[in-house]
Amino acid sequence: MTQENSSVATLDPEGVALKSVSLWNITLRRLRRRKSAIIGLVILAILTFVALTAQWLAPYDPYTPLIGIENVKAREAPCIYALGCPQSKPQHILGVDGNVRDQFSRLLYGARLSLMIGFSTVTFAIIIGTVLGALSGYLGGWVDNVIMRLMDVLLAFPSLLLAIAIVTVLGPGLINALLAIGIVSIPAYARVVRASVLSVREMDYVSASRALGGNMTHILFRRILPNALTPLIVQGTLGIASAILDAAALSFLGLGAQPPTPEWGSMLGAERNQVFTAPHLVFFPGIAIALTVLAFNLLGDGLRDALDPRLAHVS
Amino acid sequence: MATYILRRLLSSIPVLLGILFVTFALGRWIPGDPCRAILGEKATDAVCNEFIHRHGLDRPIPVQFGYYIREVAQGDFGRSFRFSKSVNELIVERLPITIELSFAALFVSILVGIPLGVISAVRHNSWVDVLTMLWANIGVSMPVFWLGLMLAYIFALTLKDTPFQLPPSGRLSPGVITVPFYEVWNLPVQPGNFWYSVLDFAARMNILNALLSLNFEVLKDALRHLILPALALGTIPMALIARMARSSMLEVLGQDYIRTARAKGLRQRTVIMKHAFRNALLPLVTVIGLSLGGLLGGAVLTETVFNLSGVGRILYDAITSRDYGIIQAFTVVIAIFFVILNLLVDISYAYLDPRIRLD
């Protein structure tokens, strides 16, 4: 406690550059003290590692059926040598799916897709949401009215249902599903950015920048929007979690990733009627989704607490 | 209060118009011929011409939008050729099932979530608190459809032949027949008129119907079928409610008037229930309101998993057969339903917190 206070205090006289670094230092330090955030970070690190190295980690190809290659049947239960599976059978630690493919390999490749889905939809939503929110907050007047009423309308739909409606019109497929999820998550970011723009728009340093002849893009992007960064990071991290869940739901309904893509939601959807005969094909993809979503949720919550200026005096 | 409600009602009109505009735009966005997209590939030219003329599809876009608003305002959502019924009939048939499921889920989540959150706050940092928060984090991260499948596996297969066995799908066991309460009561209603639709709508909620007709055997069976879907659908709101109840209670418990109440020598129970909980309630209403959207979306997934023929199931069927008309109609209906629910949530804020009314 005292140590941290003093570190902030000593930075004060040293100027702006050092101070902006210290915000991240403080954040990191606070983040490190939250066990849940650490757990989230660790899971994410493992997932990222798996996603990057899936082609080396996976014992089998995720797309090729093993018919004729190995003596396994469709939907065979997991066989692990260490747990007493006879050595005469090939080892499939998470079993074999309905098309006689190694489920473990498919899950590993799925990590790649899930992270890609989370980051791409949220990036899309943040970019559009930021532009809309910034224009809305900065210009005010009828622009603000039109944009924010549009956002209200998007929020008036249950998000998954609107995504379903959009994908049915665009046609099923991973890209269209991502687009739909991206569209339905725009309002959250637009609102966050608009709120931060409104809170600093009339401040003296912004007026000063305007008096110095800064144009709108300069003022918006260099002077105003940096203030929106922290809430955006928090919202974005939590947004990735819900984007992954929604994408899995769309794939489960057959609207997202199409077979044979090793996407967790569609793997689960393809085998859902086999839950009583081959529960491993439903259990493991679901665990993978839940773990990934949990990691982003834990990290997002941790970041929110760590970046909250109201809590600055606490730690 | 009345002016507040009126103002709030008026302010939802632009949102309703926006919803209509979005669904209208989605309908026009469908690639290809709108008539065959809605009526099916086999529609003949004559049928299509009639369809196009009736819906004003040969007129300018703004006029088309006018036609669309008129149709929705008149409650005319067209017919589904797949089900050979009007969409209105389908709504009366299917919406009660979704409403019953959503309310059961909300009921479960409030019943479990609030006490868990309050206990966690009162025993801050105890093992109850740690476990609740751990569980709340896991709860919001599980996919609804996966949880549903796992619950079905555990309660229908693993616990088979134990008292805890529960049915994995459907709404009633084979052989259990439910008689609409208006027939039990001998109400003089004829199929086709408005009041019949209203009574029929209510009677299709098995639990409500069983209660109204005092048929406890059906009630028990319907409840047994509803437990798993309600648990699956209710887990996310339950976790959110527990979390919010905890943080909002923690905030209130730290305030001076709570210390005053304790200093007066009031019992712990009175302090928690009468002084703290009442003031912690408002943020909870917000969370419950916010979970409604997720609940309606999650109902699609839950109904698919548990084979319940509600709105979600019909949407799923419509998706797989690319029945745009149904999707468009049900999206509008659910969105309007959602707006009404949000309106009720807002009104309940105003009731709970007089400051809002004076704003």
Structure, described:
The complex is a heterodimer of chains A (315) and B (359). Chain A contains 12 helices and no strands. Chain A has helices spanning 2-11, 16-33, 35-57, 103-139, 141-156, 159-170, 174-201, 204-211, 216-224, 229-252, 264-270, 280-307. In chain A, helix 3 crosses helix 4, helix 4 runs parallel beside helix 7 and helix 7 packs antiparallel against helix 10 (229-252). The radius of gyration of chain A is 24 Å and the shape is elongated. The termini of chain A are close together. Residues 1-19 of chain A have low confidence and may be disordered. Chain B has helices at residues 2-29, 34-39, 45-54, 61-73, 87-122, 127-141, 144-158, 181-184, 194-203, 206-212, 216-253, 256-263, 268-306, 311-320, 324-352, 354-358; strands at 79-80, 85-86. Chain B is globular, with a radius of gyration of 24 Å. The model of chain B has no long low-confidence stretch (mean pLDDT 86). Chains A and B meet through helix 5, helix 6, helix 10, helix 11 and helix 12 of A and helix 1, helix 6, helix 7, helix 13 and helix 14 of B.
List the helices and strands and how they pair.
The complex is a heterodimer of chains A (315) and B (359).
Chain A: H1 2-11, H2 16-33, H3 35-57, H4 103-139, H5 141-156, H6 159-170, H7 174-201, H8 204-211, H9 216-224, H10 229-252, H11 264-270, H12 280-307
Helix pairs in contact in A: 2-12, 3-4, 3-12, 4-5, 4-7, 4-10, 4-12, 5-7, 6-7, 7-10, 8-9, 10-11, 10-12, 11-12
Chain B: H1 2-29, H2 34-39, H3 45-54, H4 61-73, E1 79-80, E2 85-86, H5 87-122, H6 127-141, H7 144-158, H8 181-184, H9 194-203, H10 206-212, H11 216-253, H12 256-263, H13 268-306, H14 311-320, H15 324-352, H16 354-358
Antiparallel strand pairs in B: 1-2
Helix pairs in contact in B: 1-4, 1-15, 5-6, 5-9, 5-11, 5-13, 6-11, 7-11, 7-13, 10-11, 11-13, 12-13, 13-14, 13-15, 14-15
